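Why should sequence recovery work at all? Because a backbone constrains its sequence more than one might expect. Tight turns favour small or flexible residues, buried strands favour hydrophobic ones, and helices have their own preferences. The token representation captures these environments compactly. In the example below, the structure is given first.
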């Protein structure tokens, strides 16, 4: 993850142990300032680790950064943040001597940073400035126990790192299985690449639904798909429909054309038609019209 950036200082994450709130120092901080005090301490850790294993900040500037992150809705007075910072130094969560020099760090912060950045991510330690650990401990922190043990929430990291590594390996294993599923199935592929992709997608859906497919079944499904439609476009649409509907084969999806049904006769046309002499009717009409004109002229 960070092998490509050996000189990077800040961390992208740091673990928080499940027994964080069982630690005596955190218990004292909670007892003195409540959840707000612990939240302020958490925010300060993120600020420090974003810059490396220490942060050169005055308490005034650090407190303003904390208020900006938490929100002035919850912190009405900047003096409260400064008091929490000083109390954390009294508890040993921050190094008190370096805090007087406007440097935020501690042995626990540095030990956690070294295990993540140097041992796990194979980075180079970018500086030895304000380094509090012994030289041997800095070089081999996993083989030597610290002389002055600090709180468990600052010291224990191995289980969290192992859990993160196992989750990443599990995700990688899933991706490998997915890639294996997407590989070309046995049997002669279709000449049309779009049709072949649609058919492979159909097989993928079957596998995800728990359907076991062997080489003989794949060949049979190819033959059924060819027999179901008479053109590639129709086969592509059929394979996509089968994948979406969860069909196990194509034999029941063969294209059927509806025959044109004869029109039903209505009652209106259910009688015998009459035959008319058109010429005779026309002459009668003309004679009737001539007689009417003569009558009107008289």
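From this structural description, the recovered sequence reads:
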């Amino acid at each position: 993850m960070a092998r490509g950036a050996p000189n990077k200082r800040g961390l992208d994450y740091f673990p928080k142990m499940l027994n964080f709130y069982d630690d005596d120092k955190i218990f004292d901080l909670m007892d003195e300032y409540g959840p707000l005090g612990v939240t302020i301490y958490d925010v300060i850790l993120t600020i420090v680790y974003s810059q490396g294993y220490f942060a050169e900040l005055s308490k005034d500037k650090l407190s303003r950064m904390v208020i900006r992150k938490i929100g002035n809705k919850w912190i009405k007075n900047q003096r409260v943040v400064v008091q929490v910072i000083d109390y954390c130094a009294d508890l040993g969560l921050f190094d008190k001597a370096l805090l007087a020099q406007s440097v935020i760090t501690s042995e626990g912060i540095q030990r956690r940073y070294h295990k993540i950045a140097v041992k796990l991510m194979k980075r180079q330690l970018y500086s030895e400035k304000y380094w509090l650990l012994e030289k041997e401990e800095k070089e081999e922190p996993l083989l030597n126990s610290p002389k002055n043990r600090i709180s468990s929430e600052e010291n224990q990291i191995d289980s969290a790192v192992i859990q993160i590594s196992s989750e990443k390996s599990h995700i990688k294993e899933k991706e490998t299985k997915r890639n294996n599923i997407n590989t070309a199935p046995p049997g002669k592929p279709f000449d049309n690449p779009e049709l072949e992709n649609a058919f492979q997608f159909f097989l993928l859906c079957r596998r995800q639904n728990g359907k076991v497919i062997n080489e003989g079944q794949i060949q049979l499904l190819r033959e059924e798909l060819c027999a179901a439609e008479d053109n590639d476009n129709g086969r592509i649409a059929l394979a996509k429909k089968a994948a979406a509907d969860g069909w196990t084969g194509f034999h029941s999806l063969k294209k059927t054309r509806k025959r044109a049904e004869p029109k039903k006769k209505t009652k209106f046309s259910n009688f015998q038609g009459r035959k008319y002499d058109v010429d005779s009717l026309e002459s009668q009409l003309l004679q009737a019209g001539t007689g009417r004109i003569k009558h009107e002229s008289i």
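A few observations help interpret the result. Residues 24-51 form the longest helix (28 residues).
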